[in-house]
Design a protein that fits this description.
Elements: H1 2-21, H2 32-41, H3 43-54, H4 69-72, H5 91-124
Length: 125
């Protein structure tokens, strides 16, 4: 019987360590604190549910261990992209710019059509 209690304690400790060392984006369905309380208060059920439902198992994300230096570093692995400059034009200005672009595109298409007709007429004569 003590073997069963020791096994239950070991499973709970492993689940607790795994839940604590996971990043928030690697935990599903409940917040990390809720999973930790659930594992501590209901060791067998909480541990089983943690490993079946709460833990993200996808291979794309890697788990961090206690000794992983990324866990303690303040800087991100890749710098965040610079924010896009905000468009300060009014809606009317944006619409006017779009209309100008449409007119320019229509004029370019007309020029191409006339050149094609001119080149086609000269080649046929």
């Amino acid at each position: 019987m003590p073997f069963l209690a020791l096994l239950l304690f070991a499973v709970m400790v492993v689940a607790l360590i795994d839940a604590i060392t996971r990043r928030d984006d690697q935990i599903r369905f409940l917040p990390k604190v809720a999973w930790i309380f659930f594992i501590v208060l209901l060791p067998l059920v909480g541990s089983i549910l943690w490993f079946t439902l709460g833990r993200e198992w996808s291979g794309g994300r890697e788990a961090m261990s206690f000794g992983d230096p990324r866990r303690w570093s303040k800087e991100e692995a890749a710098p965040a992209p610079a924010p896009r400059p905000r468009d300060t034009r009014t809606t009317e200005q944006q619409l006017a710019d779009l209309e100008r672009e449409e007119r320019a595109a229509a004029l370019e298409a007309e020029i191409r059509r006339r050149r094609a007709a001119k080149d086609g007429g000269a080649a046929g004569a």
